[in-house]
Amino acid sequence: MPASLDDILTTQKNGVVAINNLGQSILATYTFLKGTPLTSGAAGTGSYSTLYTVPSNKQMMITDMEICNTSATAATFYISLCAFGETAGASNAVFYAAPIPGNTTVQWTGQQVLEAGGFVAAYASASTVTIKVNGGPG
Questions:
Q1: Nearest residue to 78 (alpha-carbon basis) of 94, 54, 61
Q2: Secondary structure class of 121 (helix, strand, coil)
Q3: DSSP 101
Q4: I want to staple 138 with a disulfide (CB 3.0 to 4.6 A). Which of 5, 48, 59, 74 is the partner?
Q5: How far apart are CA 28 and CA 4, in angstroms?
Q6: Is 96 exposed, middle or buried, given 0-12, 13-18 or 19+ CB atoms closer than 10 A?
Q7: What residues pair up with 115 in beta bridges, in sequence order?
Q8: CA distances (Å), origin 24, targets 19, 27, 28, 40, 72
Q9: pTM score, two decimals?
Q10: Which sign, positive or negative, has the C-alpha torsion 125, 128, 129, 134?
């Protein structure tokens, strides 16, 4: 279990070096902020498709998305974060008709919480656009 801030301050006060626990705490903090991969793959073309759905009785914080155009040709992409029952579109878009040049990666970082049944939906103008969504328990 990672050390708490109180543990770290107490060990410093008592002159004890807790490098291992400190390293674990830093790694846990980084993992929380960056998130773990929830889904990754090619974006569908033409209309929205669901990339990830929050499981029942869960809450998920979306912390990072990486959008990559693996072609030399420019493309356009759309990503929406939707609550249960919503339809993906302009009203819940994080990216809407966003241009991405060829051979380029775009990264979004933030903290958007989705409740059970909420989902991430996306599509692109070309199948060469891939999307990776990261997050963790919200």
A1: 94
A2: strand
A3: -
A4: 59
A5: 11
A6: middle
A7: 59
A8: 9, 5, 6, 27, 41
A9: 0.76
A10: positive
In this prediction, residue 68 has a pLDDT band, given cuts at 50, 70 and 90, of: very high
For residue 37, what are its two tokens? 């991969």
Contact 112/62 with Cβ under 8 angstroms?
Answer: yes
Q: Please give the structure tokens belonging to residue 90.
A: 């302009």
Instruction: Give the CA distances from residue 89 to residues 3, 44, 65, 81, 136, in Å, rounded to whole numbers and listed in that order.
Output: 43, 15, 18, 9, 24
Give the span between the Cα atoms of 89 and 121, in whole angstroms: 9
Q: Which of 103, 107, 104 is nearest to 95 (CA)?
A: 107
| pLDDT at residue 138, as a whole number | 77
pLDDT value at residue 99: 98
